[in-house]
Amino acid sequence: MKAKLSSGIVHSNSTNRRSVFASCFGLGLIGLLAAAPAYAASEEVARPEYAVLIVSFLFLMGVSQVGVVFSAVTRLSGADWAKPYYRVAELSTMAFAPFAIVGFLLIYVFGRDGLFYWLSPAPDEHLSAWLSSGWLLFRNLLGLSLFYGLSGVYVWKSLRPDLAQADNLDPREVQSQLYFLSLWVLVAFVLCNTFLAWDFAMMLIPHWHSSVFPIHYWFGNVYAGTAALLAIPAVLGRFSATESLFGTFEIRSLSKVLSGFMLFWLYFMWAQFFVMWFGNLPRETDALFRQMYGHYAPFYWTMIAGCFFIPFVCLIFTSINRSLLAMSVLAIGINLAIWINKYLMVIPVYSTDERLLDYTGELGLSFLLLVSFLAVVVVLSRRLPTYAYWEINLQSTPAPEEAAQEDPALVDGVLGHSSNHA
């Protein structure tokens, strides 16, 4: 009899569940109470047009791009445990591709004058040709087209062996092609997000230049996107007709990667902060101190807690990093913290006293964008093979035995399900 992997997923008992929910609720309540003055609505505001919607757009684009990046990194490193994550991770990247291109063009057409001060220089001010609307359009379209173009080829090559008309393909050859493309996908990701970090964050602050900031920006996307992958088993269990291939082994392995990314994020954040703080140049520290002190301080310290302190404590405990429920809650918290990080990159530049509830309309549009993106992911995952079965079956011989030590259902579940799919 074919064993279902979903039965292999270890769920916490009722006491542990209540403890996890109570802890998360308590931490969230404390954070909201501390930040209430900043979140409340104000009577007089000087809001940048569509700023919160642009923040949400940049956040979702960055998180979704990590799907293909995750597949590329784990393929290059030979991480067999990550193979069940590949397909939906890759489809999530392609699901946001039309939103990314159309969204950027809308910002360029309707929002560039209010967002980018350097597009309206004084008559006697001479600026580099780089700081022009033409170059703004060219470099970002180049980065987006290069990344999504390579990602489209990458995902198509990964998908073809699981389609009925592609039975004659050699899986080993496809694997070699994906291995070769993985490096170029990573290069395109860094290039695309470096342009976005320059234009939509660093260059919003006059006369500020930083070689570390783009790394801090795009690695925040990697951190949040990897955390978001932890919710894939929960989403598939709810919306997919295909039985789950995610067990304790896969969840715990991804939690280990997340622990490493958490420390890398802290390192890049500290590298960015320390250089600005030690140099103490007003043009650099003004925006930073606006985030850390005064009105935006609750946002800043909520972000630090959500990105580092809470994950650091939670990931220590095996009972949490083996639990799908607990890790999904933690993943949501990390993504909210990275959204706040993007919010602090944009909003304080324009005003020292903006309040989040002044943007209820833009928050609603942001939620609509999120729901639309998730709907496309669900539709794609239901219409296309949910798992890269051809690649799962290419595991080296010891790998299933190693996985079976933690999840005995893995071998029978994978082999039995892939044979039925074929």
What does this structure look like?
The model is unreliable at 1-17, 24-46, 397-404 and 408-422 (pLDDT under 50). α3 (86-95) packs across α14 (360-383) and α7 (213-228) runs antiparallel to α13. The protein has helices at residues 14-39, 51-77, 86-95, 97-115, 133-159, 171-200, 213-228, 232-239, 248-279, 282-292, 297-314, 318-321, 324-350, 360-383, 389-392, 398-406, 409-421. It contains 17 helices and no strands. The two termini are 18 Å apart.
Tell me what portion of residues adopts beta-strand conformation.
under 5%
- Radius of gyration over C-alpha positions, nearest whole angstrom: 22 Å
Task: State the share of residues found in helices, binned by percent.
Answer: over 70%
Low-pLDDT parts are 1-17, 24-46, 397-404, 408-422
Number of strands: 0
Largest sheet: none
Note the overall shape: globular
Number of helices: 17
Mean pLDDT: 81
Count of domains? 1
**Element order, helices and strands?**
HHHHHHHHHHHHHHHHH
**What is the terminal separation in angstroms?**
18 Å
Structural class: mainly alpha
List keywords for this structure.
single chain, 422 residues, mainly alpha, 72% helix, globular, disordered N terminus, disordered C terminus
Brief overview:
The protein has helices at 14-39, 51-77, 86-95, 97-115, 133-159, 171-200, 213-228, 232-239, 248-279, 282-292, 297-314, 318-321, 324-350, 360-383, 389-392, 398-406, 409-421. The protein is an all-alpha fold and 422 residues long. Helix 1 runs antiparallel to helix 11 (297-314), helix 3 (86-95) packs antiparallel against helix 5 and helix 4 runs antiparallel to helix 5.
